[in-house]
Each structure stands twice: as C-alpha cells, then as structure tokens.
Amino acid sequence: MQSHWDRVYDGKDITKLGWYQKKPQPSIKLIGSLNLDKKSRIFIAGAGATTLVDHLLQEGYNSITACDISKKALDHLKARVGEDNVNYIVDDLTCMNHSVNDIDLWYDRAVLHFLTEEEKRMAYWEHMDNAVKNGGHVIIAAFSTEGARKCSGLDVHRYNKDMLVEFMGEKYELLKAFDHIYTMPSGDKRPYVYTLFRKR
Ligand SMILES: C[S@@+](CC[C@H](N)C(=O)[O-])C[C@H]1O[C@@H](n2cnc3c(N)ncnc32)[C@H](O)[C@@H]1O
Predict the structure, then answer these.
(1) Atom 7 of ligand 1 has which residue's CA nearest to it?
(2) Mind listing the pLDDT tens digit for each residue in 185-200?
C-alpha cells in the first residue's frame, strides 16, 4: 500500500490530484466552529499534501501532526510549509508504530474510506481512540454512499452519516454532519459526507 501511495505522489503536481483542494472550505468551517485554542494538538490522519496545514498555520495553530503512509506525500507538504509547528510521521493508520496521545482534534479527509476490510477499520478506530483525549474532537470526511466506488484506482468503502455514527460508536457524540460535493481538478464531482464528533 505504501508503494502505491508513494507512486501517486512521486514527482507529481499535487494540484492535479483527484482530491486537491485549493482551500479546504468544508473543513475550515468545521474546525472554525470548534474555537480551539491555538496550542491544540491536531492530528491529520493521511495528510498527504493537504492545504489544510497551510490554513492551520496561517491561523496560528502550533501543534500539528501530519501522518501519512507515504513519505513522498509528506515530502511535498514539508517542502511547502516547512517544519515549524508541524511534526511529520510516516506511519500506517492501521498498524501504527508511533504512539500518539492527548489529541484535541483528529482529522481525516478521504482516508478511512480506503479501509475496505473490517479488521483494518477496527485497528484504525483503536489507534484513533487511544490518541484522542476525552472531550476531544474527530472530523471524518469520506466518500458518500451516493459517490464513486473507487479513488486513486483503489476500491473504497462508502459511508453515510449513520454508518459513520455506527463506526465511531457510543463513546463519540455526533455534533454535525453534512453532505458536500467536491469538484475534482478534472471537473468531475465527488460526493462526500462530513462528520464532526466529540469524545464523551
Ligand atoms: C485521497 S488522499 C487524501 C489526502 C488528504 N487527506 C487530503 O484531503 O488532501 C489519501 C491519503 O491517505 C494516505 N493513506 C492511505 N492509506 C493510509 C494508511 N493506511 N495510513 C496512513 N495514510 C494512508 C495516502 O497516502 C494519501 O495521502
């Protein structure tokens, strides 16, 4: 899997990738609604080269962790935003070697939906739950059940709000959910479901 994603990012113009956002508006809106302290520990799961990091740094957040299975992906991000206030970890969210804890916000856009096996989804959930502190928040944005069956040539497990509520379980309270149609650089549309949870 790592080699797939390294190939996807290696030497690529990231603005052409099928999930590139010039400004990640729905995420900005959700994170803004939380009024987080700038010192909040924000963990970006499967960060890739997301422009959300640029936005968070501009807003003054200073404890960001960008995690991705692909070093090539994080190299793009590092070259663009540098290393001040961002910690980079190359790791697989389904079997993490790094220990991550006391996270105020776990953020995942277009990553969980690649976990097509129940076992991997459960492993992801365990890592997430160990990382997020009580009262912390989780944002998950995934391909919706109305959306495409593949992303980056890989099968995806699609979600609606209720499926994400079930995935997160009783420890997590749903605060917000909405559908969003993302337009790819190619002009194709990709329906997503966005959810925001709070750990009880
Ligand atoms: C579709 S991209 C989305 C990137 C970013 N979240 C965004 O919104 O621009 C999926 C990202 O998840 C990463 N990824 C896929 N499976 C992963 C895993 N098991 N652990 C960590 N990262 C993973 C890929 O390398 C890729 O950067």
Answers:
(1) 50
(2) 999 999 999 999 999 9
